[in-house]
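Feature request, filed as a ticket because there's no other form

It would be nice if the structure record came with a short human-readable summary line next to the tokens. Right now we just get the raw output. Example of a typical job, pasted below so the devs can see what we mean:
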Amino acid sequence: MSGITDIPFRLMTKKFGCSFAYTEMIDINGILYNNRKTFIMMDTVPEDTAIGVQLVGEDADKFLRVGKICEEKGFKLLDINAGCPARKVVKCGKGSALMKDIKKLAGIVGKLTAALTIPVTVKIRSGWDGENINCIKAAKAVAAEGVSAIGIHPRTRDQMYKGEADHDLTRRIKESVDVPVIASGNIFSAEDVEEVFNKTGCDAVFIARGALGRPWIFDEVNRYFTGKKNIYPPEFNVLKKTILEHYLLCLKFYSDNIAKRRMYKHLMWYFKKYKKKNEIMKEYQKVEGLREFKQFLKRLYVEDKNLYVKG
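Raw output as currently delivered:
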């Protein structure tokens, strides 16, 4: 998830049992042009294990050059993003725009699988629009080129994130290829995970938006399937401790100003279910350092599902 799955966020999810995570979506051109910010997105730390790099691009030769760099940096897996629906991405022929050119997508996969030793996976959408649902054709094409797994978000590019994910398509892909299929889309709870597994027969699931403001969703899912008591969502005081831990991780890797900016969206997600959060975020904007952030958290309280800050 672009702008989200940085080291602090990955470490938070792994604390709660996330078994495999990805970098933020990285444009291959940024790597080839030695863009400093792009290389920062490729940074890892020793405790940030079991991590794949997710790349977006549209040129097979460039993909290969970048793939070798990623392999040398020690990534466990390379994922080709052929699903991102963002306008700035697809207008350059990248992301879900590749669903309009299955031959090109398959060519990228084939070039990478022939030259790299790490697994290569692909994430696709159901198609470009409702008139062009071609995910099964795409899945067969990349499977024939040696892809190690296929992730499917069964919405079209035109749908973006609206409407229901059509996991009947996920099932049909699973029945059509002999490689692992990973389901994505509308997975926000342990019950959603169970329903998708039962409906599709998929091998695994991606949890993306379901982890925003809820990094504990991975432990929640694990507890559900192992018969342990569900302890989520956490009490508000526990939530505040989780938020502080996330903020401290941001400070470990970023300056005060950058940490504050990056935490803003996470706080909006952490506080999503509470009313009057916009007023609280105005108070957050006044925070200038760790001491003030701790004071800000200490002053927060909930009453009748409304979020308030004392005095």
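Something like this underneath would help us a lot:
The first strand starts at residue 21 and ends at 22.
Residues 236-253 form the longest helix (18 residues).
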